[in-house]
Amino acid sequence: MPTMRYREALNQALREELEADENVFLMGEDIGVFQGAFKVTAGLLQEFGEKRVRDTPISENSIVGAGVGAAMLGLRPVVELMTVNFALLALDQIINSAASIRYMFGAQVKVPMVIRMPGGAGHQLGPTHSHNFEAMFLHIPGLLVAVPSTAADAKALLKAAIRDDNPVIFLEHEWLYGQRGEVPENGGPGRFGEAAIRREGSDVTIVGISRMAITAQRAAETLSKEHDIEAEVIDPRTLRPLDLDTIIESVQKTNRAIIVEEGWPHGGVGANLAALIQEQAFDYLDAPVGRVAAADVPMPYSKPLEQAAFPHEEHVVHAAIATFRDI
Amino acid sequence: MAVRQTDAPHKLPDKETSVEVLERMLLIRRFEERAGEMYAKAKIGGFLHLCIGEEATIVGAVNAMRTTDYLMSTYREHGQALARGTPPEAVMAELFGRVDGVSKGHGGSMHLFDWERRFLGGYGIVGGNLPLATGVALACDYKGTDDAIVCMFGDGASNQGTFGESMNMAALWKLPVVFMVINNQFGMGTSLERHSAVTDLSKKAEGFGVPGSRCDGMDVLDVHDAVGEALRKAREERQPQLVEAVTYRFRGHSMADPEEYRTKDEVAEWRKRDPINVFKQRLIDEGVISDDDFEKLDERATGRIDEATEFADNSPFPDLDSLYDDIYVYGDQVKGWYAVDERAPEPHRGEDEREAGDLAHELAEAGAAYTHEEYEEDRWRHSGDDNAGGGEGEPAGGARDTTGGGD
Ligand SMILES: Cc1ncc(C[n+]2csc(CCOP(=O)(O)OP(=O)(O)O)c2C)c(N)n1
Fold first, then answer.
1. What is the ipTM of this complex?
2. CA dihedral defined by A102, A106, A108, A112, rounded to 10 degrees?
3. At the topology level of CATH, where does B15-314 sit?
4. CA atoms of A222 and A316, how far apart (whole Å)
5. What is the least distance, in Å, from the CA of A226 to any CA of chain B?
């Protein structure tokens, strides 16, 4: 199987879908002449021309809104917001339009669009440029939410997102862009709502979101080597729909669970999953469901503070061990 | 359409002022050059947006302001802080992420702030500062003061909804604000004519009731005149103004911009109008200073930057226990859990209990330890904003490779 970087896998998915369906077009800030702020769209303007790959002014709310309008007429816009931070300017169109229009207008139209955006901390971008909003998008009915952590999933899920008839929030991670992975040749679209078990284990279930799926796998190796704890690591890959069955089955086996995310703890993905696990598998739990999240602060710029403020392998190891306390 | 305020050259101010203006522009230039070097050495992280080429625009405008007026800018704002009089030490220390930085290391290059000098911030979100400036002007008016605000932003920002919204509100309420669009010809890699249907930006707010004027952003005296007059109208006539300064950014958008969207010839053409060289030459030609005087001024500016860099390098990183400081103002509220540290099973109660529990402390240190060792997979090359463009996953190594893409 060929290996490639996460960003190249995304680029392939975009190219293949642009080729396959003339209703697919891309739109975003600096995605064309500049080749994309993270080079995900590199070469696509040259290949498909300005009609299909459109550089936009810096106008996030209207970029998304125009995408919704075009989707209502049957086009399949793939909108890139330069980073997830700027999605805050487009929340009106994302929530009040993209997510609601089908329901609000009695299913007369659909909104088949994808909004791609990278995020994540660790690059010293300070409080306005380091957000993780998985939890916020998960909160909104009407949106699908993808959080791929491997190159193969990035490609397969993006293809699926573009072909899906719903608005999809596609969350990429800045740190993952340079990571390599195997990607099947001529692979088709993936499936939303299918978690991946990244590592099997019988002692504790660790659910890792986006980049934190990688951190969780590393922590699992340390737990095995240094603490004799075999963790089962689950990467949900999409948060809506969510493959809760796979998570619950795992918890029924391990009797312990922790959730690792890069966003804030209050109302986070972990808070939500912990509630679901407790509702569905209370009798199986031997310990409270643990959460590992970012520090509850705006992300500081200064490097040591920033590194202290988002989860690393050590935090996951400690949280996993804590589920064995008092037993 | 005329760019300058007048066709004839502006009369030079007195010698003292002329030299001061030149010195201020030099200080900014040397600061920015040094910041670029420090970024390459990984002393500075994140994004670094330099204003080289825009010094006349910045200094001309700031010199037209009263010390009691307010100033707001974008993430490309080191020059604005320095022009306002913020010591280069405090700016460089912020870029280094140190505790003596203007924002205590919390904000970084994009988020400088100096309350004392009424520099109300650099803002990382394009177009995010226009409504804030409108509100500051509202407060100036509300309190019955004579103060005004200058709000600077880029040509790209004129496409945000906040542009029209703020213009209308300011005109409607007759607020003392001068909006200043620094037209450096690009929003990242997108040229003005590719991002704005109206390219005479001074006209862009007319329909909202905000008249505009244009000035030559490479001529510090022309900018001074334009902003001075705009401030007068905003202050005395309560008529908000839009001033467009036509200038050019000599460097990339941020440090890792490969600049494929423009030609070297175009940059070279604009560099002939380098605002510092042009002004210096005029002072020499008119006998205000000699070549020698200039060398001395330049050495002095470089010396100031040497001191600032040394100061920044000696300033400590913020204490890890300060992570939860300064989020809230603690008053008479009922005590509760303001912040919860879910990184540790042992919760951190925030500022209220500054000392985290032992485990939380240990984990904070485990995280901070990643500062010093090269995180195995963290090979993201700081290639700019929105950036990791070129983050081609090559090892960053000791020094920073800044080729690649990005904001
Ligand atoms: C809302 C928002 N969208 C996108 C960005 C990413 N970004 C940072 S600077 C920039 C270009 C801005 O151009 P302009 O307003 O002309 O100012 P300049 O950088 O030229 O000073 C972009 C797109 C951002 N910071 N905020």
1. 0.96
2. 10
3. Rossmann fold (3.40.50)
4. 10
5. 17
